Amino acid sequence: MAGVTSARRPFGENSEPVSIYDRTFRLTGYSAAFYHSHEPATLADATLWQIHPELSNEPYRSTLDSVISGGIATSIELAVPESDAKRHLLIFRTDSGVGVRERGETASRPQGALEDDRDLLLHQATHDLLTGLPNRRAFSSDLLSLLPPSADFALMQIDLDDFKLVNDTLGHSAGDVVLRMAAERIRNSLGPNDTAYRLAGDEFAIIQRSVDQPAEAERLAETVVEAFKEPLTIDGITVVVGASVGVAVAPTDGNDSEELMKAADIALYAAKTDGRRRARTFRRSMLVIIEQREMLRRSLRTALQKEEFYLEYQPIVVSHSTIAGFEALLRWRHPIAGIVPPSVFIPMAEADGIMSELGQWVLARATRQASEWPKHFKLAVNVSSTEFLLEGLSDRIADTLDQSGFDADRLELEITESVLLERTTENLDILNTLNVLGVQISLDDFGTRYSSLDHLKNFPFDTIKIDRGFIRGNRPIATAEILL
Fold first, then answer.
1. Is 405 exposed, middle or buried (0-12, 13-18, 19+ CB in 10 A)?
2. Which tens digits make up the pLDDT trace of 21-45?
């Protein structure tokens, strides 16, 4: 039976013929009842149209397309030739395509069959098709059923860290695999009184019914964080996706769904701003921190005009403690908050779409200042992935060098590893153009993402800075540089 794989029955203990098809309508799985109702030889490389030819004709084809696009299971009734009996097919969407459940040739449908159909429709309406977890509709219903709280319970919001990078670099199909794996890890972390949900995208939630709160919720949240420390493997590529968790407890943190969701969201925000891959429980003091960060976000857009940014220079030391040059580091001195760490304002700038403007300011200011240095000192400047992906980067760098009078061969641009996998052909063209200009290219923190040494053969790097985790051995190594 080449081309056909056995599959668990897609729902319940239903013993009726069920067949599963992928997005090209090729048969990929079936129930035991389906197998026994067909000749095995006919199932090799079979398609939906061969198993159910009537579905290729109108109006059934339109019904099939509607189920696939809308996700709502539909029951259709087919006339049996030369008989008053009817044959029933229940068509439902699956993670990989579409499924069909067959009913026998009967004059009327038994009550049990109708109940099975209603159960399946209800299941699909309240569950996420990709992960199998209860969906946002089920989450809202379950949360409302617990309010106002008659006993303590906890609400947890979970976001996957670096999930967007997986989608951007490996594609949405890999992203779907990560979401299914993530759902499984969350599900395996649950206790008997816990329910997990997929809300949207890479957003998950947990409702925990326990009297020992917040201690029990904090234990579960840490378990979820720990579950994501083990890397995932997708088509031979190692993917590191973490989890950040925000915890809120009813009734302490709120008596209605809006208050609880806001509290859990603030705690999640705190987990992310504290470095991600961790859990945080809501505290009232977090509201002050949120207000401060929003104040900084509003101030960030005018900080350039108010000349609040400045540069610091970190020495680049080579063998025998010789200084080869300096790396330009962007700093922000806020008139009220004082020195704002880059770990705080850089993510804000990237999220608000002004990182490219800041990057251009850094390059212009640094090359102008470095033009007064001794000629043997080089200048290193970081280029964010956001700035790198903007059209015209090489032209802007060439113009900046012309205006500052700084020699191109003294400039080293540091790029992140994600550039290796995003728009590979276009990025290679940009790097080659910069190489022709004489600009040196440095790859920063190689080994933190999903690229391999094979990728390095295609890119004109002069220096590679290897992440410590990539080469960790018996002795501590902070950063290793390979000069090419």
1. exposed
2. 888 888 877 777 787 777 777 787 8
